[in-house]
Amino acid sequence: MSKTIYILFISFLQIGLFSIGGGYAIIPLIQEQVVNSYNWLTLQEYTDIITISQMTPGPLVVNTASFVGIRLAGIPGAIAATLGSILSGFIISIFLYKFFMKHKDIDSISNILKGLRSSSVGLIASAASTIILIAFFGTASIGVKGFSINITAIILFVISLFLLRKYKLNPILIMIFTGVIGLFFY
Amino acid sequence: MIKNLKIYFSLFKITFYISAFTFGGGYIVIPMMRKYFVNDLKLISEQELLDMAAIAQSTPGAIAVNIAVLVGYRISGITGSVITCIGTVLPPLLILSIISFFYKAFRDNRVISAILKGMEAGVAATIVDLIIDMGQGLLKEKNWLLTLMAPIAFIASFIFNINVLVIIISCSILCFAQTYIKSRQGGR
Protein backbone atom coordinates (compact mmCIF):
# COMPACT_ATOMS: atom_id res chain seq x y z
CA MET A 1 0.00 0.00 0.00
CA SER A 2 2.63 2.54 1.08
CA LYS A 3 4.78 1.44 -1.85
CA THR A 4 1.96 2.21 -4.28
CA ILE A 5 1.57 5.65 -2.71
CA TYR A 6 5.29 6.28 -3.06
CA ILE A 7 5.30 5.20 -6.74
CA LEU A 8 2.22 7.36 -7.40
CA PHE A 9 3.96 10.36 -5.87
CA ILE A 10 7.21 9.86 -7.81
CA SER A 11 5.45 9.16 -11.08
CA PHE A 12 3.29 12.29 -10.89
CA LEU A 13 6.30 14.29 -9.75
CA GLN A 14 7.91 13.34 -13.07
CA ILE A 15 4.76 14.22 -14.99
CA GLY A 16 4.55 17.59 -13.23
CA LEU A 17 8.20 18.33 -13.90
CA PHE A 18 8.00 17.68 -17.62
CA SER A 19 4.58 19.17 -18.36
CA ILE A 20 5.48 22.68 -19.38
CA GLY A 21 3.08 24.91 -21.26
CA GLY A 22 0.08 22.86 -20.22
CA GLY A 23 -2.91 22.15 -22.40
CA TYR A 24 -3.16 19.35 -24.89
CA ALA A 25 0.62 18.96 -25.21
CA ILE A 26 0.82 17.05 -21.94
CA ILE A 27 -1.80 14.40 -22.81
CA PRO A 28 0.73 11.96 -24.38
CA LEU A 29 3.17 12.63 -21.53
CA ILE A 30 0.68 11.48 -18.88
CA GLN A 31 -0.38 8.58 -21.10
CA GLU A 32 3.21 7.36 -21.28
CA GLN A 33 3.42 7.04 -17.48
CA VAL A 34 -0.10 6.06 -16.55
CA VAL A 35 -1.03 3.73 -19.43
CA ASN A 36 2.21 2.51 -21.04
CA SER A 37 4.70 2.26 -18.15
CA TYR A 38 2.56 1.33 -15.16
CA ASN A 39 -0.65 -0.05 -16.69
CA TRP A 40 -2.65 1.83 -14.08
CA LEU A 41 -5.38 2.59 -16.60
CA THR A 42 -6.38 1.05 -19.92
CA LEU A 43 -6.26 3.29 -22.96
CA GLN A 44 -10.08 3.46 -22.91
CA GLU A 45 -10.10 4.55 -19.26
CA TYR A 46 -7.45 7.14 -20.04
CA THR A 47 -9.50 8.54 -22.93
CA ASP A 48 -12.47 8.69 -20.54
CA ILE A 49 -10.47 10.61 -17.95
CA ILE A 50 -9.41 13.16 -20.58
CA THR A 51 -13.09 13.64 -21.45
CA ILE A 52 -14.05 13.93 -17.78
CA SER A 53 -11.19 16.31 -17.14
CA GLN A 54 -12.62 18.64 -19.75
CA MET A 55 -16.03 18.32 -18.08
CA THR A 56 -14.78 19.19 -14.59
CA PRO A 57 -12.94 22.27 -13.37
CA GLY A 58 -9.23 22.25 -12.69
CA PRO A 59 -5.99 21.42 -14.49
CA LEU A 60 -5.77 18.19 -16.50
CA VAL A 61 -2.74 16.97 -14.57
CA VAL A 62 -4.41 17.47 -11.17
CA ASN A 63 -7.59 15.80 -12.40
CA THR A 64 -5.71 12.78 -13.73
CA ALA A 65 -3.63 12.53 -10.56
CA SER A 66 -6.75 12.57 -8.36
CA PHE A 67 -8.52 10.01 -10.51
CA VAL A 68 -5.61 7.56 -10.79
CA GLY A 69 -4.62 8.07 -7.15
CA ILE A 70 -8.04 7.31 -5.72
CA ARG A 71 -8.52 4.23 -7.88
CA LEU A 72 -5.15 2.77 -6.90
CA ALA A 73 -4.85 3.71 -3.26
CA GLY A 74 -7.95 5.60 -2.10
CA ILE A 75 -7.84 9.08 -0.63
CA PRO A 76 -4.15 8.88 0.46
CA GLY A 77 -3.28 7.87 -3.10
CA ALA A 78 -5.20 10.81 -4.56
CA ILE A 79 -3.45 13.22 -2.21
CA ALA A 80 0.02 11.74 -2.88
CA ALA A 81 -0.42 11.82 -6.66
CA THR A 82 -1.85 15.37 -6.64
CA LEU A 83 0.94 16.60 -4.38
CA GLY A 84 3.51 15.05 -6.72
CA SER A 85 1.93 16.69 -9.76
CA ILE A 86 2.11 20.22 -8.34
CA LEU A 87 5.30 20.14 -6.26
CA SER A 88 7.84 21.00 -8.95
CA GLY A 89 5.69 23.87 -10.25
CA PHE A 90 5.29 25.20 -6.71
CA ILE A 91 9.03 25.24 -5.99
CA ILE A 92 10.27 26.36 -9.42
CA SER A 93 7.72 29.16 -9.87
CA ILE A 94 8.56 30.71 -6.48
CA PHE A 95 12.27 30.31 -7.21
CA LEU A 96 11.92 32.03 -10.61
CA TYR A 97 9.73 34.78 -9.14
CA LYS A 98 12.27 35.52 -6.40
CA PHE A 99 15.05 35.49 -9.01
CA PHE A 100 13.30 38.04 -11.25
CA MET A 101 12.28 40.28 -8.33
CA LYS A 102 15.79 40.24 -6.86
CA HIS A 103 17.42 41.20 -10.16
CA LYS A 104 14.75 43.50 -11.56
CA ASP A 105 17.24 46.39 -11.60
CA ILE A 106 19.50 44.55 -14.03
CA ASP A 107 18.25 45.50 -17.49
CA SER A 108 19.11 42.28 -19.29
CA ILE A 109 17.20 40.20 -16.72
CA SER A 110 14.15 42.45 -16.46
CA ASN A 111 14.04 42.43 -20.26
CA ILE A 112 13.76 38.61 -20.20
CA LEU A 113 10.68 38.93 -17.99
CA LYS A 114 9.19 41.52 -20.35
CA GLY A 115 9.88 39.15 -23.25
CA LEU A 116 8.23 36.25 -21.45
CA ARG A 117 5.22 38.48 -20.85
CA SER A 118 5.01 39.34 -24.56
CA SER A 119 5.38 35.74 -25.66
CA SER A 120 2.75 34.68 -23.12
CA VAL A 121 0.27 37.00 -24.90
CA GLY A 122 1.00 35.05 -28.09
CA LEU A 123 0.73 31.69 -26.35
CA ILE A 124 -2.53 32.63 -24.65
CA ALA A 125 -3.84 33.78 -28.06
CA SER A 126 -2.84 30.41 -29.48
CA ALA A 127 -4.77 28.58 -26.75
CA ALA A 128 -7.73 30.92 -27.27
CA SER A 129 -7.76 30.20 -31.02
CA THR A 130 -7.98 26.46 -30.33
CA ILE A 131 -10.88 27.06 -27.92
CA ILE A 132 -12.64 29.29 -30.49
CA LEU A 133 -12.25 26.64 -33.20
CA ILE A 134 -13.73 24.00 -30.93
CA ALA A 135 -16.59 26.26 -29.79
CA PHE A 136 -17.52 27.58 -33.25
CA PHE A 137 -16.70 24.67 -35.55
CA GLY A 138 -16.41 21.65 -33.24
CA THR A 139 -12.87 20.89 -34.40
CA ALA A 140 -9.41 21.81 -33.16
CA SER A 141 -7.69 21.77 -36.57
CA ILE A 142 -8.16 24.10 -39.50
CA GLY A 143 -9.32 22.89 -42.91
CA VAL A 144 -11.01 19.65 -41.86
CA LYS A 145 -13.86 18.76 -44.17
CA GLY A 146 -17.36 18.29 -42.83
CA PHE A 147 -17.22 20.82 -40.01
CA SER A 148 -20.35 22.68 -39.05
CA ILE A 149 -20.70 26.27 -37.93
CA ASN A 150 -22.30 26.70 -34.52
CA ILE A 151 -24.36 29.91 -34.73
CA THR A 152 -25.49 29.72 -31.08
CA ALA A 153 -21.88 29.64 -29.91
CA ILE A 154 -20.93 32.61 -32.08
CA ILE A 155 -23.85 34.72 -30.78
CA LEU A 156 -23.07 33.69 -27.20
CA PHE A 157 -19.42 34.62 -27.74
CA VAL A 158 -20.29 38.08 -29.10
CA ILE A 159 -22.73 38.80 -26.25
CA SER A 160 -20.22 37.62 -23.63
CA LEU A 161 -17.40 39.67 -25.10
CA PHE A 162 -19.64 42.74 -25.22
CA LEU A 163 -20.64 42.30 -21.55
CA LEU A 164 -17.00 41.85 -20.55
CA ARG A 165 -15.66 44.85 -22.44
CA LYS A 166 -18.50 47.24 -21.84
CA TYR A 167 -19.55 46.37 -18.27
CA LYS A 168 -16.38 44.60 -16.96
CA LEU A 169 -18.58 41.74 -15.81
CA ASN A 170 -17.12 39.11 -13.47
CA PRO A 171 -15.74 36.25 -15.64
CA ILE A 172 -17.34 33.73 -13.27
CA LEU A 173 -20.76 35.26 -14.01
CA ILE A 174 -19.99 34.84 -17.72
CA MET A 175 -19.24 31.16 -17.14
CA ILE A 176 -22.54 30.68 -15.25
CA PHE A 177 -24.48 32.68 -17.88
CA THR A 178 -23.08 30.74 -20.86
CA GLY A 179 -23.49 27.44 -19.00
CA VAL A 180 -27.19 28.09 -18.32
CA ILE A 181 -27.79 29.19 -21.92
CA GLY A 182 -26.04 25.99 -23.07
CA LEU A 183 -28.40 23.95 -20.94
CA PHE A 184 -31.40 25.38 -22.80
CA PHE A 185 -30.03 25.45 -26.33
CA TYR A 186 -28.02 22.27 -26.75
CA MET B 1 -2.78 38.24 13.84
CA ILE B 2 -6.53 38.50 13.24
CA LYS B 3 -5.80 40.57 10.16
CA ASN B 4 -3.47 37.84 8.89
CA LEU B 5 -6.10 35.18 9.45
CA LYS B 6 -8.59 37.30 7.54
CA ILE B 7 -6.24 37.56 4.57
CA TYR B 8 -5.47 33.83 4.72
CA PHE B 9 -9.17 33.06 4.72
CA SER B 10 -9.91 35.32 1.76
CA LEU B 11 -6.93 33.88 -0.16
CA PHE B 12 -8.35 30.41 0.37
CA LYS B 13 -11.93 31.39 -0.39
CA ILE B 14 -11.11 33.22 -3.63
CA THR B 15 -8.73 30.59 -5.02
CA PHE B 16 -11.19 27.81 -4.14
CA TYR B 17 -14.01 29.70 -5.84
CA ILE B 18 -11.93 30.48 -8.95
CA SER B 19 -10.70 26.91 -9.22
CA ALA B 20 -14.26 25.58 -9.12
CA PHE B 21 -14.91 27.60 -12.32
CA THR B 22 -11.65 26.87 -14.13
CA PHE B 23 -12.97 25.26 -17.30
CA GLY B 24 -11.24 25.28 -20.65
CA GLY B 25 -7.60 25.51 -19.64
CA GLY B 26 -5.54 27.36 -17.07
CA TYR B 27 -5.47 30.78 -18.74
CA ILE B 28 -9.03 31.54 -17.66
CA VAL B 29 -7.72 32.09 -14.11
CA ILE B 30 -5.80 35.23 -15.19
CA PRO B 31 -8.93 37.37 -15.79
CA MET B 32 -10.56 35.86 -12.68
CA MET B 33 -7.53 36.65 -10.49
CA ARG B 34 -7.51 40.13 -12.00
CA LYS B 35 -11.15 40.63 -11.03
CA TYR B 36 -10.61 39.65 -7.36
CA PHE B 37 -7.00 40.45 -6.44
CA VAL B 38 -6.33 43.46 -8.70
CA ASN B 39 -9.68 45.23 -9.16
CA ASP B 40 -11.63 44.38 -5.99
CA LEU B 41 -9.07 43.83 -3.22
CA LYS B 42 -6.22 45.83 -4.81
CA LEU B 43 -3.67 43.49 -3.21
CA ILE B 44 -1.51 43.30 -6.35
CA SER B 45 -1.11 45.47 -9.46
CA GLU B 46 -2.11 44.40 -12.95
CA GLN B 47 1.56 44.50 -14.03
CA GLU B 48 2.51 42.17 -11.19
CA LEU B 49 -0.23 39.73 -12.14
CA LEU B 50 0.97 39.67 -15.75
CA ASP B 51 4.54 39.08 -14.57
CA MET B 52 3.28 36.19 -12.45
CA ALA B 53 1.33 34.79 -15.39
CA ALA B 54 4.47 34.92 -17.56
CA ILE B 55 6.53 33.14 -14.89
CA ALA B 56 3.77 30.58 -14.22
CA GLN B 57 3.66 29.81 -17.92
CA SER B 58 7.43 29.35 -18.12
CA THR B 59 7.43 26.92 -15.19
CA PRO B 60 6.63 23.19 -15.30
CA GLY B 61 3.25 22.11 -13.97
CA ALA B 62 -0.29 23.40 -14.27
CA ILE B 63 -0.47 27.13 -15.08
CA ALA B 64 -3.53 27.69 -12.87
CA VAL B 65 -1.75 26.21 -9.84
CA ASN B 66 1.48 28.11 -10.50
CA ILE B 67 -0.29 31.48 -10.79
CA ALA B 68 -2.22 30.82 -7.57
CA VAL B 69 1.03 29.90 -5.80
CA LEU B 70 2.70 33.14 -6.94
CA VAL B 71 -0.26 35.33 -6.01
CA GLY B 72 -0.33 33.74 -2.55
CA TYR B 73 3.43 34.12 -2.20
CA ARG B 74 3.36 37.79 -3.20
CA ILE B 75 0.55 38.60 -0.73
CA SER B 76 1.49 36.45 2.30
CA GLY B 77 4.80 34.69 1.66
CA ILE B 78 5.21 30.91 1.83
CA THR B 79 2.15 30.51 4.08
CA GLY B 80 0.08 32.38 1.50
CA SER B 81 1.39 30.23 -1.34
CA VAL B 82 0.53 27.01 0.51
CA ILE B 83 -2.99 28.33 1.20
CA THR B 84 -3.68 29.40 -2.39
CA CYS B 85 -2.20 26.13 -3.65
CA ILE B 86 -4.55 24.10 -1.44
CA GLY B 87 -7.46 26.35 -2.43
CA THR B 88 -6.75 25.69 -6.11
CA VAL B 89 -6.15 21.94 -5.86
CA LEU B 90 -9.00 21.08 -3.50
CA PRO B 91 -12.00 21.52 -5.88
CA PRO B 92 -10.63 19.23 -8.64
CA LEU B 93 -9.35 16.76 -6.02
CA LEU B 94 -12.75 16.54 -4.33
CA ILE B 95 -14.77 16.49 -7.54
CA LEU B 96 -12.62 13.84 -9.24
CA SER B 97 -12.54 11.68 -6.12
CA ILE B 98 -16.33 11.62 -6.04
CA ILE B 99 -16.75 11.20 -9.81
CA SER B 100 -14.26 8.32 -9.97
CA PHE B 101 -16.97 6.08 -8.51
CA PHE B 102 -19.50 6.74 -11.26
CA TYR B 103 -17.44 8.31 -14.02
CA LYS B 104 -19.13 6.41 -16.86
CA ALA B 105 -22.55 7.86 -15.97
CA PHE B 106 -20.99 11.29 -15.62
CA ARG B 107 -19.18 11.04 -18.97
CA ASP B 108 -22.45 10.22 -20.78
CA ASN B 109 -24.58 12.82 -18.97
CA ARG B 110 -26.33 15.01 -21.55
CA VAL B 111 -27.14 17.86 -19.15
CA ILE B 112 -23.51 18.36 -18.13
CA SER B 113 -22.38 18.16 -21.77
CA ALA B 114 -24.89 20.88 -22.71
CA ILE B 115 -23.74 23.21 -19.92
CA LEU B 116 -20.11 22.68 -20.92
CA LYS B 117 -20.83 23.23 -24.59
CA GLY B 118 -22.37 26.59 -23.66
CA MET B 119 -19.41 27.49 -21.47
CA GLU B 120 -16.97 27.06 -24.37
CA ALA B 121 -18.19 30.36 -25.82
CA GLY B 122 -17.85 32.02 -22.40
CA VAL B 123 -14.28 30.77 -21.98
CA ALA B 124 -13.39 32.00 -25.48
CA ALA B 125 -14.88 35.45 -24.82
CA THR B 126 -13.18 35.84 -21.43
CA ILE B 127 -9.75 34.96 -22.84
CA VAL B 128 -10.21 37.18 -25.91
CA ASP B 129 -11.12 40.05 -23.56
CA LEU B 130 -7.84 39.45 -21.67
CA ILE B 131 -5.82 39.28 -24.91
CA ILE B 132 -7.25 42.63 -26.07
CA ASP B 133 -6.14 44.27 -22.81
CA MET B 134 -2.71 42.62 -22.89
CA GLY B 135 -2.26 43.46 -26.58
CA GLN B 136 -3.02 47.14 -25.96
CA GLY B 137 -0.32 47.16 -23.30
CA LEU B 138 2.14 45.66 -25.78
CA LEU B 139 1.44 48.27 -28.46
CA LYS B 140 2.46 50.99 -26.00
CA GLU B 141 5.80 49.24 -25.52
CA LYS B 142 8.60 51.18 -27.18
CA ASN B 143 10.77 48.12 -27.68
CA TRP B 144 10.07 46.57 -31.13
CA LEU B 145 11.33 43.14 -30.10
CA LEU B 146 8.84 42.97 -27.24
CA THR B 147 5.95 44.05 -29.47
CA LEU B 148 6.87 41.50 -32.15
CA MET B 149 7.38 38.68 -29.66
CA ALA B 150 3.63 38.20 -29.15
CA PRO B 151 2.64 37.60 -32.82
CA ILE B 152 5.79 35.50 -33.35
CA ALA B 153 4.97 33.30 -30.34
CA PHE B 154 1.38 33.00 -31.59
CA ILE B 155 2.41 31.90 -35.10
CA ALA B 156 5.08 29.53 -33.76
CA SER B 157 2.63 27.90 -31.37
CA PHE B 158 -0.67 27.92 -33.28
CA ILE B 159 0.41 27.54 -36.92
CA PHE B 160 3.66 25.57 -36.59
CA ASN B 161 2.91 23.70 -33.33
CA ILE B 162 6.37 24.46 -31.97
CA ASN B 163 6.91 23.24 -28.41
CA VAL B 164 6.19 25.89 -25.76
CA LEU B 165 9.51 25.23 -24.04
CA VAL B 166 11.41 25.99 -27.27
CA ILE B 167 9.44 29.23 -27.70
CA ILE B 168 10.09 30.33 -24.09
CA ILE B 169 13.82 29.58 -24.21
CA SER B 170 14.33 31.28 -27.61
CA CYS B 171 12.42 34.31 -26.37
CA SER B 172 14.54 34.55 -23.20
CA ILE B 173 17.80 34.30 -25.15
CA LEU B 174 16.69 36.95 -27.68
CA CYS B 175 15.60 39.41 -25.00
CA PHE B 176 18.74 38.87 -22.96
CA ALA B 177 20.92 39.33 -26.05
CA GLN B 178 19.09 42.50 -27.07
CA THR B 179 19.80 44.35 -23.80
CA TYR B 180 23.29 42.88 -23.57
CA ILE B 181 24.23 44.17 -27.04
CA LYS B 182 22.61 47.53 -26.30
CA SER B 183 24.56 47.95 -23.07
CA ARG B 184 27.82 47.03 -24.86
CA GLN B 185 27.16 49.62 -27.55
CA GLY B 186 26.21 52.21 -24.94
CA GLY B 187 29.45 51.53 -23.06
CA ARG B 188 31.68 52.40 -26.01
UniProtKB/TrEMBL annotation, chain A:
It is found in: Cell membrane. GO terms for cellular component: plasma membrane. The chain crosses the membrane at residues 7-30, 78-100, 121-140, 146-164, 169-185. It holds the Pfam family Chromate_transp. Its main location: membrane. It comes from the Bacteria. Keywords: Cell membrane, Membrane, Transmembrane, Transmembrane helix. GO terms for molecular function: chromate transmembrane transporter activity. It is a multi-pass membrane protein. Belongs to the chromate ion transporter (CHR) (TC 2.A.51) family. This is Chromate transporter. It comes from Anaerocolumna aminovalerica. The lineage of its organism: Bacteria, Bacillati, Bacillota, Clostridia, Lachnospirales.
TrEMBL record, chain B:
Belongs to the chromate ion transporter (CHR) (TC 2.A.51) family. GO terms for molecular function: chromate transmembrane transporter activity. The keyword Cell inner membrane does not apply. It is a multi-pass membrane protein. PANTHER family: CHROMATE TRANSPORT PROTEIN-RELATED (PTHR43663), CHROMATE TRANSPORTER (PTHR43663:SF1). It holds the Pfam family Chromate_transp. This is Chromate transporter. The lineage of its organism: Bacteria, Bacillati, Bacillota, Clostridia, Lachnospirales. The chain crosses the membrane at residues 14-33, 81-102, 114-132, 152-181. Its main location: membrane. It is found in: Cell membrane. Keywords: Cell membrane, Membrane, Transmembrane, Transmembrane helix. GO terms for cellular component: plasma membrane. It comes from Anaerocolumna aminovalerica.
